[in-house]
Amino acid sequence: HGGTLDPLATGVLVIGVNDGCKELHKYIGCNKVYLATGLFGFATDSYDSYGKLLKTAPVKHITKEMLTFTLQKFTGDISQKPPLYSALRMEGRRLYDYARKGIALPKSIEPRAIKIHSLSLLDFTVNHDYKPPTTTTILKTRTSENNDVMNASDPSNAINEDSIIESLLMDNPIFKIHVECGKGTYIRSLIHDIGIELNSAAHVVELIRLQQGDICLHRDTIELDERTDLNTIFNAMEKIQSKHSYSSQLQCNKVTDISAS
């Protein structure tokens, strides 16, 4: 393939078949376009909603104007630290392997130079249905902070988790951003860093890869649930081959000429 998708992500994933695998390097190093949604107020170890909650943070001070101004700081050539849950290798082992097995890293993860070509805010609202990363952990964190841990064995002290979570999320806005970036960019790290820059916390709750190189979602792709339909796969391969690879097109023409003769 031409570059992994995060477990949470959907969208374009370039797959190579036979000689097409030789072309994949073009897509690993090319520009990509994403639509990302972040939730303020919660930081996780994976920088997305699949991870474990690390901290909660205030959000009431965040305004749309502050967020718009902050996004400008993340446009252009910037330095970014990859997340622990990533496929990067350190001393022969994937970083996510260290994380999943609870193995200490042999050294710190070094920041890397990346480029954000464009970054725009599409939405900033408290009207959403996204949930906190870990309900139980949030409850324990908030109640312990307030020194108000109740005895669950006493029915009179029963906690209505739904009402508490609803109250916690009342002021926790989401933000949607459109990102065009260069190779090596982690959108999870971008969302995480935006939260820190705003003296809060944030993690990814939805991520869609809209474009990879010259391959666009829907225009040039097939749905995953169509993978068993060989005709659909062949037609997609033929379309991409003729549209995106001049050398492959020449080869197709040669085959056609031979058949005609």
TrEMBL record:
Keywords: Isomerase, tRNA processing
InterPro entries assigned to the protein according to its UniProt record, in alphabetical order: PsdUridine_synth_cat_dom_sf (IPR020103), PsdUridine_synth_N (IPR002501), tRNA_psdUridine_synth_TruB (IPR014780)
Record-linked Gene3D superfamilies: Pseudouridine synthase
GO biological process per UniProt: mRNA pseudouridine synthesis; tRNA modification
EC number, UniProt record: 5.4.99.25
GO molecular function: RNA binding; tRNA pseudouridine(55) synthase activity
Family recorded in the similarity comment: Belongs to the pseudouridine synthase TruB family.
Protein name (database record): tRNA pseudouridine(55) synthase
